[in-house]
Design brief:
Elements lengths: L1 H17 L4 H17 L1 H8 L5 H15 L3 H12 L6 H16 L1 E8 L5 H15 L2 E8 L7 E5 L2 E4 L2 H13 L1
Parallel strand pairs: 1-2
Antiparallel strand pairs: 1-3, 3-4
Length: about 180
């Protein structure tokens, strides 16, 4: 499944960047269609049913595209997925596309979890540190976990930087027991 989603995501990333489209707008339009699919079992059944001709499925797509002002490249991606009976890969394609575009545009995805809510200055400082650490622009998501007691945990990809009080206490405990 991952290779199918990656193939479509890479191809559409080529389209987005080659046509100088706004990546965030393209992702938002795809997420709009994904929301419609999540909300409508009927729409899912129509687009995933092999007994319904592709031109009828594209007709339904065109009505949605006109109503929601979806761009032609996004419409064409969905039409290709419909034509190749790959709509069940739609959400994984979007997820992979976001990762592909972030990588090509030089963004690092960071998840920052702190013991308390961070103010704007603290968020800017975290993002600045991540930018220095990775050499990339940052897309940060913030969360709160009071069990950390203090400090924060930063996750970039599969790398975790634990600067929390809870993490420090666990490291001290390990050092004492070993």
């Amino acid at each position: 499944m991952a290779s199918v989603a990656s193939t479509y995501a890479r191809a559409f990333a080529d389209v987005v960047l080659g046509a100088h489209l706004d990546a965030d707008t393209s992702i938002a339009e795809l997420r709009t269609i994904a929301s419609l699919l999540a909300e409508s079992a009927m729409l899912r059944r129509v687009w995933e049913n092999p007994a319904i001709p592709a031109d009828q499925k594209r007709g339904v797509l065109d009505v949605i595209v006109d109503r929601d002002k979806i761009s032609k490249p996004v419409r064409n991606l969905i039409a290709v997925l419909i034509d190749h009976r790959r709509m069940h890969f739609f959400v994984p394609v979007i997820d992979q596309l976001e990762k592909e575009l972030d990588a090509r545009l030089g963004f690092a995805e960071a998840q920052i979890t702190s013991a308390r809510a961070l103010d704007d200055d603290e968020k800017r400082e975290f993002e600045s540190q991540v930018r220095k650490l990775t050499g990339k622009k940052v897309r940060a998501q913030y969360g709160q976990d009071v069990s950390l007691l203090g400090g924060a945990v930063l996750r970039i990809g599969s790398t975790i930087y634990d600067g929390s009080v809870k993490g420090q206490l666990e490291r001290i405990k390990e050092a004492i027991t070993s």
